[in-house]
Amino acid sequence: MTFRQFAFRNVVRNRRVYAAFFMASVFSVMVFFLNSMLLFHPSIESSALKDIAFLGMGTAEIILYIFTVFFLFYSMRAFLQARTKEFGILLQLGMQKRQLHRLIFTETILIGAASIGVGTFLGYMFSKFFFMVVKRIVMFSYLPLYFSWKPFALTVGAFLSLFMIISLVAPVFIRTGQLLELIRGEVNEKEKLGFSKVRGILGVLLLGMSYTLAALTSNSIVIGLVFLLPPLATVGTYYFFTDSLPLILHLLKLRKEFYWRHFRLLAISEGIVRIKENARMFFIVTIVSTVAFMSVGILASLTSFASQYREVNPLGLVYKSFPGNELEHQHLRQIHEDLKSNGLDYTHVRFPVLEQQSSATAFTVNIVRIADINKLAKSSGNQALELSKGEALFLPPTTSTFAQLNKQTVETVLQESGVAERIDGAYPYQLFPAHALGTNAIVVSNEDFEAIARFVDQPAFVYHAYDIQDWQETKNIGLSINHALGESMITGSTYAPRFYFDNPGLNYSVMRTTFTLLLLIGLLLAGVFLLAAGSFIYFRLYTSLDSDRKQFDVLRRMGITDKEFKKIVNRQLIPQFFIPWSVALIHSSFAFLSLQVIWDALAEISIVRELIMVLVGFTLLQIVYFYLIRWRYLAHIRTPG
């Protein structure tokens, strides 16, 4: 038998240990390849989303690569620790350390090559289905399967170099120690099981402080907390697992009436050892899971914003003309022609907006007349309102301000014109986007508006509102106007345009496509993160599999039943799976509270439903993964070593 054959048979013989590592590696390669296929797709490269897709998928590739490096280093260390007994026997039989390093190098390359081959093959096999999903979600008209050497070259080159690095560095993880310790499998000394009460209390305090700040955040401090809370929560999480949890379990041990009962003695005493030995692993799993939750949660909130875009943008098109705008009639003619050529029905309402100073507040007030408001309200299916001379209503700038303004009654005189108004309550319908007519606007009667207009040379601006039923079909309306406006903003021209144009249908199309594409990429990354997080626990279980098998063999000889055996296993495995998961869920929930504050300030939308779906979905996946790992663990524990 040659050396390479020996290495190959070693891999096959240890397939149980390498199973999770191989699966996670294959999944990472497959996700990387699918991203590469989308990145180099001809339809993407020729579309308007080229830059966004390149940035999103390129960033995902880099994150995935860096994370895979970390994941493989951790995995390889766990494997070598689990195989110390095997290494001791090989050295006892006369193998040199140089040959042992070569053996590990060959095994790693074999697993890496197999992972790259299987992952790339599965990636290409699922590419057609992947493109069908992307096409439907992102609303591309044509996204066919294609063949190009670029995705293959990028994937094989990236992961082959990665496994080469791992293969060369892996032997550093071997701590040979004494030969007798190797043969017994004791080369890696167990960490001291002590803990610090000070650090334990500090960990709880840091987490409590992080949660309190996240729950009580406001618009004025939320940006600062974005930079403060992550390091605070990270340090608190580390101390929580290394010291706080052992301290809590130690306090439970002191309660004899609780500790000396049924299987709690065994579960708690073993739990202290497991938590202290695996504290760093729990910390890593928690952080990785939190990152996965947050990435998907943030992207889901962006998708939520896109789905609620119509609520915050009730108009189909908006054109705002300021004094001195010589292009107003030309632009309006073009908009009407585009609407007609696309077969879209619309209602156009022209709003001259006047400015006056209020004697009650000394602030400038924007004024519109009730007749114009009623035209727009009628097209939207709302009831027309009537105002008598001297009566006025607040026009709420946002939906959330309606309740406050509706309770107010203000008597004022518009100073330039001398017209007296009694503003009693707020206009009940949200007909305009937020702050469309300014932050301080009122609706007056037709008679009062004409009286005010006699003292005004020209309106402060003219607001053209287009109510369009099929508003998502307006993405091709006024493209040249939109392009001219965008070009002037990008170039920073000293000549500021005297108009403003907004096409919610076009904006929604771009946002929906962008956000759903990013969400899809985020889900793929989250899948890799979560599989890796579960694999960390899997590796740790199999590192201590021999000692666990001996422990349960002793318990079986003492007469433990199969039901009691499962109960003990559950009490040992459930904390390892669900304590890090629960902490990650709590981290994410409080982080989402801060995120909701940001969305309230930007668009006044709720992201609660989407975030609950994300957290519940991930929890169900973790439960399925737990039962799968428990099934395999029980099978191996019951198998004689």
Quick structural overview:
Its main location: membrane. By secondary structure, the protein is of the alpha+beta class.
Which regions are unreliable across 5 or more consecutive residues at pLDDT < 50? 186-192
Identify the quaternary structure here: single chain
The whole-angstrom Rg is 33 Å
Q: How many individual β-strands?
A: 9
Q: In terms of structural class, how would the helical and strand content be classed?
A: alpha+beta
- Tell me the number of helical segments per DSSP (H or I, 4 or more residues long): 24
Percent strand equals 5-15%
Spatial order of strands in the largest sheet? 5-6-4-7-3-2-8-1-9
How far apart, in Å, are the first and last alpha carbons? 26 Å
Rounded average pLDDT: 79
* Shape verdict: elongated
What proportion of the residues is helical, as a percent range? 55-70%
Number of domains: 3
**Main sheet attributes: strand count, strand direction, barrel closure:** 9 strands, mixed
